[in-house]
UniProtKB/TrEMBL annotation:
GO cellular component: membrane
Segments crossing the lipid bilayer: 20-43, 63-82, 89-108, 114-141, 148-169, 181-201, 222-239, 259-278, 290-308, 314-339, 351-373, 379-398
Principal subcellular localization: membrane
Annotated compartments: Membrane
Protein known as: Major facilitator superfamily (MFS) profile domain-containing protein
MF terms in GO: transmembrane transporter activity
Domain of life according to the entry: Eukaryota
Family under the similarity heading: Belongs to the major facilitator superfamily. Monocarboxylate porter (TC 2.A.1.13) family.
Keyword Lipid metabolism: no
Keyword vocabulary terms for this entry: Membrane, Transmembrane, Transmembrane helix
UniProt-listed PROSITE patterns: MFS (PS50850)
Length: 411
């Protein structure tokens, strides 16, 4: 009976690839992305606000630790919850994640010192997003196979839309009703949108029995190892523009504070299309064939910020960077599914990969902050660009190992 169940799980012909419940899972996952990566994508606005506001006595690197710890908690806790998901506690994960995200946001509204902001925004909200992260994609993998990249892309668009809506809400409300109530309003939006996810998410099948927390054999597979290495190196530099492009434009006089604020919104808005369109193409050309050139382009665009001295050039680069970087967040989960033969091990393999990736997210933006304090923005963009290009090179090794040297191969 167990072998029959596993056969059904691994048989992609049994996956519905559509229908009401399948698309409701996309909707539920959309709002999970909205309140996980969407929150992470918002931190650039808080970075700018804290530098000139209540945390002005802290260095940019110190402040960036808040955002990087939040993103790291998302990935690290997500890696620990992979086996919990596989054990069948999906609804419990989403419910617990919802509580901590909303509770942390409300506690942030009361925070006035660095350590209070760190505990509420980085640790509490970060823990909640970590509980929500694995269900974002793992649930979809039980409803979609041939259209998995499209489904994940539509869901992942929630992270970009969240990264547009939350900064605008904060920017517009904070001067009018103050930091505390602007933060609470965002908390209520989180509660309302996550209620939808709690209502509709439903796993179609689960792995039979309990499994190991780790699958060490995965590290012997070249495609898996070099892909995880690529995501680790890429996340060292990927969020550098997300955290610092506003500060760069405002402090260098390229843009006014009002216009500079909207750079992050422009970047995240463009990222919405970058998470849907490339994923749609990936279903036809293969996920590796899409993520690798997009990652190369992302690194080159970060390097182009070195020469960006006008508001027009910064806006164009921000929009293009948002579009191409979108694939780096939306496609990795699809690739983990793609390179995992046993679909019952998807949760564990994602968790292992994201645990390594979390280290890159943790130290990446603080390194950028340290470089900024020591050498200025020029070398911040050099660091971010080079790390992202190296990520594309590592993923290329993974792609060749998986599908060979033929450029026309669907990999």
């Amino acid at each position: 009976m167990t072998m029959t169940f596993i056969s059904i799980l691994n048989n992609i012909k049994s996956v519905p690839n559509g229908g009401l419940w399948a698309w409701l899972q996309v909707l539920g996952s959309f709002f999970l992305f909205f309140n996980t990566w969407g929150i992470v994508n918002t931190f650039g606005t808080y970075q700018t606000f804290y530098e000139v506001g209540r945390l002005s006595s802290s260095t940019p690197s110190d402040i960036s630790w808040i955002g990087s710890l939040q993103a790291t908690s998302l990935m690290l806790v997500g890696s620990l919850t992979g086996p919990v998901y596989d054990a069948g506690y999906v609804r419990s994960l989403v419910a617990v994640g919802t509580f901590f995200v909303v509770f942390g946001q409300m506690m942030l509204s009361l925070s006035t010192t660095y350590y209070q902001v760190l505990l509420s925004q980085a640790i509490c909200v970060g823990f909640g997003t970590g509980c929500l992260f694995i269900p974002c994609v793992a649930v979809l993998s039980t409803y979609f196979s041939t259209r998995i990249a499209t489904a994940v892309g539509l869901a992942a668009a929630g992270s970009s839309i969240g990264g547009v809506i939350y900064p605008i809400v904060f920017y517009r409300l904070q001067p009018v009703i103050g930091f505390a109530w602007a933060t609470r309003v965002i908390g209520f939006i989180m509660l309302g949108t996550l209620a939808i996810s709690n209502a509709v998410l439903k796993v179609r099948v689960l792995p039979a029995g309990r499994r190991k927390f780790l699958e060490l054999a995965a590290w012997k597979e070249v495609p898996y190892t070099f892909f995880v290495l690529g995501t680790f190196v890429g996340f060292l530099g990927l969020y550098t523009p997300f955290f610092y492009i506003q500060t760069y434009a405002i402090q260098t006089g390229i843009a006014s504070p009002h216009l500079g604020f909207y750079l992050l919104a422009i970047l995240n808005a463009a990222s919405t299309f970058g998470r849907v369109i490339p994923n749609f193409i990936a279903d036809r050309l293969g996920p590796f064939n899409v993520i690798i050139p997009c990652t190369f382009a992302t690194g080159l665009l970060c390097l182009c910020l070195i020469a960006a001295k006008s508001i027009a050039s910064v806006i164009v680069i921000a929009a293009l960077y948002g579009f191409f970087s979108g694939t780096f967040v939306s496609l990795p989960a699809t690739i983990f599914v793609y390179i995992t033969k046993n679909r019952g091990m998807i949760g564990t393999r994602m968790g292992m990969g994201f645990a390594v990736t979390a280290i890159g997210i943790l130290v990446g933006t603080p390194i950028s902050g340290t470089i900024l304090a020591a050498s200025g923005f020029r070398y911040v963009w050099v660091f971010g660009g080079i790390m992202t290009v190296l990520a594309a090179m590592s993923m290329s090794v993974s792609r060749v190992s998986k599908g060979g040297w033929k450029l026309k191969a669907v990999v």
